[in-house]
Design a protein that fits this description.
Blueprint lengths: L1 H5 L4 E4 L7 H11 L10 E5 L4 H11 L7 E3 L9 H5 L3 E5 H7 L28 E8 L10 H8 L1 E8 L9 H10 L7 H13 L3 H15 E2 L6 E2 L2 E2 L6 E8 L3 H24 L6 H16 L18 H10 L30 H6 L14 H16 L5 E5 L2 H13 L4 E4 L5 H13 L5 E5 H4 L10 E4 L6 H8 L11 E8 L3 H25 L4 H8 L20 E3 L4 E3 L5
Parallel strand pairs: 1-6, 1-7, 2-4, 2-5, 3-4, 5-6, 10-15, 11-13, 11-14, 12-13, 14-15
Antiparallel strand pairs: 8-9, 16-17
Helix pairs in contact: 5-6, 6-7, 8-9, 10-11, 11-12
Length: 579
């Protein structure tokens, strides 16, 4: 990092695998390369809200007392005096605070020839300081160049700039441009140049040309290590083992009847879309139908009926977040709030909320009653695992992930009834409550369970105090699950990490597992291609049979580490082979 900072670009992208210590490396950079100008000595760290206290804690624990002065710039009582801000070695803030303080310049003040928007006169204190260094943690946050947040980050004044991200690409190559613009990587910080040299060739059946150009740029600005990287033939990092167990369990009789009726209703609805030729226009509805099946695997209450009082008509907040993730490539898709929560049929006039009459009669009528089903198959399996852990490995802590906060609510009830001390971490909690939860799981031995929503807690957190992970539901892409597991399996972990993934037999989760296995095979194949130097998968297979020499790869986008078929957060992004 120091070499990158002292180079022509004055910074770069640190794209190490999650859990390899990007924060610690950055702190080392701050200490080893300080400013020699007392009037411009401050490093600004911009991070998601969930990570600002962790940054503060890491700086204090990894440096000697008094070496670095740290200010967390957040909350209603933020320091407004610019000269006071300049006295701190490190200032930590959030993307939301930065965006809120940014005001674009008036039209008559704008430089139409510049790609960079300068802050307006009414912008806040962060834009009136010339920073020695600006660090963007989880820099994929600014992937959309048109957002106010991305513009705000680019408008900061600084001598040096760094992006920290384990996922520099999530959906498309244009997301890299936003990082290049922030880093001032010339000439590719100009969008017209980036579009002409990279985006357009890639889209116009000339991916090999675009990839070669990106290789050259990234070699100059990006540093990347994986957990499997080696130095002088030896592993760069020796982490404890990560053991993953897939625990497949059958439904109870009541749950099976409910799930089968729901699946039958969904199948008939999908058949109708196909016959009408309206699958494309009902894309959001199809996602909702799949979501309902996945929710039914967790607990019948998540689907409708008794749970519908939690929300207005249509999908819940959990639903909308997942649909947004799945539909990210297709642009903004609105969810019709006048539809049945289960089958997405339009509700008749006068029906204010809930389910259509057909679903109420054919599906919810078969939903187990409160007396028949207090918990669910997955919750019972979870309790068995926790009880066995408490008996055989007392003191070991378990992190439980679910994509649905409503599922976490149901798990909470089960934990209370069975006497488990637990804490919770999700996006609906304010920052102080999140920090209190992290402090309890880290410092108090009696708290042995932590509930985390997958979307909120899959990035940035350090939870090496635990060594057991329980995944209550599975996601289409295994990369998101891996990110969550890396909260535990990372630098600082001293014990083997045991991961249990709960799935229900003969459900939609079977198909999700097959999709995950396919993506894992593709990713492993690409890693082997990188390792052996094969040109593509076909040549790699020939080399395995002893029929072909190794050829230097010409199409690997990231060198080293990220593969051409890059497994992203929301889907697998296939970079076409030039062959």
């Amino acid at each position: 990092m120091k070499e990158r900072e002292e180079g022509i670009n004055k910074g770069g992208i640190l794209a190490d695998d999650m859990g390899l210590g990007k924060t610690v490396q950055t702190i080392s950079l701050i200490v080893s390369n300080p400013s020699k100008d007392p009037a411009c000595k401050s490093t600004l760290v911009v991070a998601p809200l969930a990570l600002i206290r962790q940054w503060e804690s890491e700086i204090k624990s990894k440096t000697t007392d008094g070496l670095l002065s740290v200010l967390v710039y957040h909350g209603s009582e933020r320091i407004s005096n610019i000269e006071t801000l300049k006295t701190y070695d490190v200032v930590i803030t959030t993307y939301n605070v930065l965006t809120g303080e940014f005001q674009p310049p008036a039209k008559d003040e704008r430089d139409l020839d510049s790609e960079f928007i300068k802050p307006g006169k009414d912008s806040g204190p962060l834009f009136k300081v010339t920073w020695y260094r600006v660090i963007l943690d989880e820099a994929q946050t600014i992937k959309n160049k048109s957002t106010k947040g991305a513009q705000a980050c680019c408008a900061l004044y600084s001598n040096y700039r760094f992006c920290l991200t384990g996922t520099p690409i999530q959906n498309n190559l244009d997301e890299l441009y936003s990082l290049f613009r922030f880093l001032r990587v010339k000439p590719y910080c100009d969008y017209a140049t980036y579009k002409r040299e990279v985006s357009d060739p890639f889209k116009q059946s000339r991916p090999k040309t675009a990839i070669k150009r990106l290789q050259i740029i990234l070699k100059a600005v990006m540093i990347r290590r994986t957990k499997f990287s080696k130095l002088e033939g030896k592993p760069l990092l020796n982490l404890p083992q990560r053991k993953v167990e897939l625990k497949t369990i059958p439904f109870s009789l009541q749950e099976r009847r409910f799930y089968d009726s729901l699946e039958d209703r969904m199948r008939r609805k999908l058949d109708a879309y196909m016959q009408e030729g309206s699958m494309g226009t009902n894309y959001t509805n199809v996602l909702c139908l799949l979501l309902r099946l996945r929710q039914a695997c967790n607990h019948p209450k998540l689907v409708g009926g008794q749970q519908s009082a939690e929300s207005d008509i249509g999908p819940t907040k959990d639903d909308n977040e997942e649909i947004d993730d799945l539909a990210a490539m297709l642009g903004s898709l609105d969810v019709n709030v006048r539809q049945c929560r289960i089958c997405q049929e339009p509700l008749p006039a006068g029906k204010p909320k809930g389910e259509c009459d057909t679903c109420s009669a054919s599906v919810l009528a078969k939903q187990p009653t409160q007396e028949q089903l207090v918990t669910s198959t997955k919750i019972e399996a979870m309790l068995d695992i926790l009880k066995n852990t408490a008996k055989t490995h007392p003191g070991e802590k378990t992190i439980i992930f679910s994509q649905f906060t409503s599922m976490l609510d149901l798990i909470e009830n089960a934990l209370k009834e069975n006497g488990f001390k637990y804490c919770r971490y999700d996006g609906q909690m304010n920052n102080q409550k999140r920090e209190d939860s992290l402090r309890r799981i880290r410092e108090r031995p009696e708290y042995t369970v932590m509930l985390i929503s997958l979307k909120c807690g899959s990035l940035g957190l350090n939870l090496t105090v635990a060594n057991r992970v329980l995944m209550m539901d599975i996601w289409w892409n295994p990369a998101l699950e891996d990110q969550a597991i890396d909260r535990v399996h990372r630098i600082g972990q001293t014990r083997d990490v045991l991961v249990t993934r709960l799935t229900i037999v003969s459900t939609v989760e079977d198909r999700i597992l097959k999709l995950q296995e396919k993506k894992h095979r593709q990713h492993q194949e690409e890693q082997e291609i990188e390792r052996t130097g094969a040109h593509d998968a076909h040549q790699w297979r020939r080399m395995k049979r002893g029929r072909g020499p190794a050829v230097k790869p010409t199409f690997s986008l990231f060198d080293p580490g990220l593969t051409t078929r890059y497994v992203c957060n929301t889907f697998v992004f296939f970079l076409p082979s030039p062959c």
